[in-house]
Amino acid sequence: MASHSSSARDLLDRHAEALQLFTDRVHAVRADQWSASTPCTEWSVRDLVTHLTSEQLWVPPLVTQGRTVAEVGDAFDGDVLGDDPVAVWDRAAAGARKAFAAPGALKRTVHLSYGESAADAYCAQMVSDAVVHTWDLSRAIGADERLPEDLVELTRREVGPYAKGLSQTGLFAPPVKTGKGADPQTELLALLGRRV
Asked: What does the pLDDT read at residue 171?
């Protein structure tokens, strides 16, 4: 039993760390950078932050309220950032952290768009998404692109099994080849179709 709670605590720590990393980058966006392009070819900085913000907004209804995607409907579609993107992100991130950290939350089942999932697996996916998009946002605004090793490692474990199929979703470019001796971060980003 102890090992489960310590792994749950570890996952919550990584989740908090990933959200803080993205938060630091959101707070670093200058007023003239919201329309800048990102490594996600279709997205501006604002689109990227909108995507991650709406993902966080989904967490409380799915995790703590046990609602389905259909029940939530289109509540978080479109531009959720309004006139104060930084404040909206901060609130959404705080809400997601609180939902995953609620007693027993990681042991629940959540109803996602592709079916039921364990809440801890959903949390790990959310960590991975925040990690990769932190790099995207860093590159877009000229911030430090280094990612913490523990988050790179978790994300590699998370996306490794299904990375090859991601480009077929249309959300990721095909994997990029890396040279010999590439570091783990470069390998992870290449796996997800990002040219470093």
From this structure: 63
- Domain total of the chain: 1
Please indicate, yes or no, if residue 190 is contained in any of the structural domains: no
The per-residue pLDDT for range 51-67, each reduced to its tens digit, is: 999 999 999 999 999 99
The dihedral sign for the CA sequence 124, 129, 132, 137: negative
CB 63 within 8 A of CB 100: yes
Whichever domain contains 88, its CATH number is 1.20.120.450
Q: Is the dihedral of CA 86, 90, 92, 93 positive or negative?
A: positive
At residue 160, what is the residue type? G
Sign of CA dihedral 28, 31, 35, 37: negative
Give pLDDT tens digits for 1-52.
Answer: 334 466 889 999 999 999 999 999 999 999 999 999 999 878 999 999 999 9
pTM of the model: 0.91
43: containing domain: 12-150
Residues 6+ apart with CB under 8 A from 155: 127, 128, 131, 132, 188
Residue 133 lies in a domain: yes
Distance of alpha carbon 164 from its chain centroid, rounded?
19
Query: Do 15 and 100 form a contact (C-beta atoms < 8 A)?
Result: yes
